[in-house]
Amino acid sequence: MSPDSVELVPSDETPSQAAPPAVLTKIRECWGFDSLRPLQWQAIQAGLEHRDSLVVLPTGGGKSLCYQVPPLVAARMDVVVSPLIALMRDQVEGLLQNGYPAAALHSHLSPAEQEVVVRGVEAGEYRLLFVAPERLVQPEFLDFLAAQRVRSLAIDEAHCISQWGHDFRPEYRQLAMLRERFPEASVHAFTATATERVRRDIVERLALSEPEILVGQFDRPNLTYRVQPAVDVRRQTLEIVRRHAKEAVIVYCLSRKDTERTATFLRKHGVQAAAYHAGLEGAERSRIQDAFAAEELDVVCATVAFGMGIDRSDVRCVVHAAMPKSVEHYQQESGRAGRDGLEAECVLLYSAADGLRWERLIERSAHDSEDPATTVARGRSLLQGIRSYCTVARCRHQRLSEYFGQPLASDCGGCDVCLGEVQTLPDSTVVAQKILSCVYRMGERWGVQAVADVLRGATSEAVRQRHHDQLSTYGILADQPSGVLVQLIYQLVDLGHLARSSGEYPVLRLGETARAVLRGEQEVQLIQPVIKVRRAKRATESWEGVDPSLFEALRGLRRRLAAERKVPAYLIFNDSVLRTMAARQPESLESLHQISGVGEKKLADFGQAFLDVILAHSRDPLTVG
Length: 625
Ligand code: ADP
Ligand code: ZN
Hints:
By secondary structure, this protein is an alpha/beta fold. It is 45% helix and 12% strand.
């Protein structure tokens, strides 16, 4: 089949036969998993049988296992291309904890360390070798790999090869030569985010031949999505973070300054939080990442520079203090929550002002591109996708899933819309008329804040000097706080009833539909900002039978073991394993071994220590912790 006639429908709708016992035994021994997740066996089978594949599974879907199992079962060494050193390091660390021989080659290793890895490869010691794309395509390195008779290559984060993706990396383009360079080997692409177009691009660029296309369910049922109008971003963030006391939270901000201001604000209110952005020194960045991984730090306020290298699977909440620039970005960033499969919350604080800010950035950055018109069009269309996600009150799970081409049937019970939290403002149309007529009376030459000041009847010097306090609309919405008014004005901009000029001092004008609204010919629905939220049903289920004080005691032990070993805490056991322990309270090593996620090596290394805490707790629940 030629690449341009590739069929992109998933290869097989009916589940193929189950994994053979020998494979399951290996998985049980090494990882302690009792079963495989959807599509994992099909992906593993492609790896074992050397059929090219494209595996699209959402974050947390278990992609890594798909390329980790085949070389272990077949007793060979496969190569994994990975874009980030931190990501490789964590994976190798995790594999070694399970007694799985793996290594990474990257520029942060000293020549002596690299030499050790090279020797190990030659001696056939490893099952997986992780390399960065720029290293892989070096001629000497290609020769070295060819000499090792590498038969299978996995490309992680494969969407980086596509310009239509949201994370294009030019160095990935060179991977196109792998097919020719390793005609004997199979190539396996993995990604969490890929629209139809990106999928096609991956298949073509990597010249995959008759690939098995495995596309998993995009919906992440354990995540509760919320979109809230941004009224007072820092206060709202504080309120959200407080719902997750002692839990891991990532707050994404647009600018470096925002990360610092938010972190300072949270600390002032007793939340242990740190700022993280690309402008920090390398040492400081590593310190924060390490503290977060070691569970010594709960909340990180970050730009999107934070995350790709962070694999902490027990992130319980991801807050977007500003709107990201595409649904793909949102899916990926929010997807860092709840990778352990337990319930987690994703909140996006939406302000139309962020959209306008992105538009300016898109235009500015397009200047430097080869084809500015197309770049702007592409950027705008991605932006429109996320804007519509934020402004239309329909099930968030359905919206996200549909965006990636998978319609979802029923309401989810796990988003603000389905939980009934999104309410329309009472008398929306009247409120809209008041705002529009105020913009009109002010001569259509003032910005958002000035209009909000007049509406709420501010007594500032500026208002008096401009004689705005003489207007008939002065104070007609005095019952609304300023933040809410600003938010409502932006909603009217989104709906097209108001227009906002561009430039340094944007002013508000009446939009095309404003007159119809003012004359009462058109209804308006505005969304009421709500602050109070309910817990999703799943949130209570995964805590069922879990003894919280024992869970805390087990987390404490995990932290100590991780610190001694200088590894991230979640690599010892993830939250899901600890909660099962705290619910079942096993009394012997054998019954501890029954728990999913407790493999043989971890049982030998940590089993007794965890068992001791459980037994001590059952003797005297109050003294442990
Ligand atoms: P992805 O790379 O797709 O985001 P990971 O490979 O990091 O996902 O897996 C997410 C989590 O799920 C990890 O904690 C992993 O150990 C766990 N996991 C993967 N496969 C299984 C399985 N078959 N059973 C239980 N847990 C699994
Ligand atoms: Zn829903």
